[in-house]
Specification:
Elements lengths: L15 H18 L2 H7 L2 E5 L5 H17 L4 H14 L8 E5 L5 E8 L5 E10 L2 E4 L6 E5 L4 E5 L9
Antiparallel strand pairs: 1-7, 2-3, 3-4, 4-5, 4-6
Helix pairs in contact: 3-4
């Protein structure tokens, strides 16, 4: 086959298929070894707090929310007030693993809880909303905090999984 202007014919060497197969097997092996990270692709993993009524847990939870909000530029007073409201409303939430903290500054922040293997919780700030504009970050998250004094149960929420025919 002859080269045409602007195009080059590339011939694959024998055995190049084996390289691609080896890379595919390596990728599947890496994904299966990664545990929770691989499972979260199948169904999102969330957590619920078991002992939110415990004083140490509620203090740790409020501190994690307030610290995340301060990192976003909220004043300590606004962050503490939003964390206190969130703590009061979380037990009433239909989805206690997704919740919102509304600041006096007019910004609403969306959080989620994810489990650790040690039954501890991780609090992740993934969304900000102000004046109808929403910014989401579910890859690196805006803020991540360990909630050390709380214990969490794992929830696999298949309703949030997208299935394709």
């Amino acid at each position: 086959m002859k080269d045409e202007p602007g195009f080059h014919v590339v011939q694959l060497r024998r055995g190049s298929g084996r390289i691609w197969l080896a890379l595919l097997v390596l990728g599947v092996a890496a994904a299966s070894v990664s545990g929770c990270a691989a499972a979260s692709w199948l169904g999102p993993l969330y957590a619920t707090v078991n002992n939110l009524s415990d004083e140490a847990c509620s203090r740790s939870f409020s501190a994690a929310v307030a610290s995340s909000l301060e990192q976003q530029g909220e004043t300590p007073e606004d962050a503490s007030a939003a964390a206190a409201r969130t703590l009061r409303l979380l037990p009433l939430s239909a989805e206690p693993y997704h919740f919102e903290a509304a600041s006096n500054s007019g910004v609403s922040y969306a959080f989620l809880l994810q489990p650790r293997k040690s039954s501890r919780c991780v609090l992740r700030l993934y969304e900000r909303q102000k004046n109808g504009a929403t910014v989401s970050n579910t890859f690196t998250y805006f803020a991540t905090r360990d909630v050390n004094d709380c214990s969490c149960d794992w929830i696999v929420d298949n309703s949030k999984t997208t299935y394709y025919d």
